[in-house]
Amino acid sequence: MCRFIETIQVRDGKLQNLAHHNRRMNETRQAVFGIADQLDILDYTGDCPESGFYKCRVVYGREVCEVAFSAYTMRTVRSLRLVGSDTIDYRYKSMDRKELEALYALRGNQDDVLIVRNNLLTDTSIANVALEKEGVWYTPRTPLLKGTKRALLLEQGVLTECDIPSDEISSYSHIALFNAMIDFQSLVLEINRDTVIRI
Predict the structure, then answer these.
(1) What's the domain of life for this entry (predicted)?
(2) From CA 58, how far away is CA 51, in angstroms rounded?
């Protein structure tokens, strides 16, 4: 049964950050199915587009079930609404996004939601986040999903993990949204009452 996905950025025929995608896929298979053997996404992507910017969507369960490529356009995000859920669990990149979609539906006139769990910032509905203070970028220690781009940026020392209480967001100057398809600092909002809205 296919239950999980990896979304991979493809630039001019090369799958980006593949090591972290493979690691997360195999860690998920181990945790959910108890399968220790290692799969390599590269073995399933023979028809990879050779030029341009694409999204590769890998669907898997015990094995890889489907691989598809499509053109990618970044969603416009200029404002966020803080919404809370202390019970949401999205530790694995599941195809079941019902909880995320329910929270996204609470965005009102804003473009996306910034999800608060146990009074701490986590992610938006589509991306990990980092907040800037005095030139340092901090990312929530307990995101909903430990993204592959987040893992790479932490490994490179670009980001620092810390707990970010929702009532301290105004002490930061900017918020960056990023994921496998959205490069770090390509989507940055200044934090003010027009861009980050409280319920």
Answers:
(1) Bacteria
(2) 19
The 3-state DSSP class for residue 29 equals: helix
Burial of 194 (0-12, 13-18, 19+ CB in 10 A): exposed
pTM tops 0.85: yes
Q: Which of 180, 167, 113, 173 has the alpha carbon at shortest distance from 138?
A: 173
Question: Could you tell me the two tokens for 122?
Answer: 């986590």
- Which residue, 68, 76, 26, 58, is CA-closest to 195? 76
Residues 169, 196 contacting (CB under 8 angstroms)? yes
For the chain, helix, strand, coil in percent to 5 are 20, 35, 45
Residues 40 and 17 in one domain: yes
- Give yes or no: residues 40 and 135 share one domain: no
Strand pairing report for 128-133 and 136-140: antiparallel
Q: What is the pLDDT of residues 110-138, one digit of tens each?
A: 999 999 999 999 999 999 999 999 999 99
DSSP lists the bridge partners of residue 89 as none
- Quick one: 59 and 86 in the same domain? no
- If you average pLDDT over residues 29-41, what whole number do you get? 96
Range of the domain at 108: 80-198
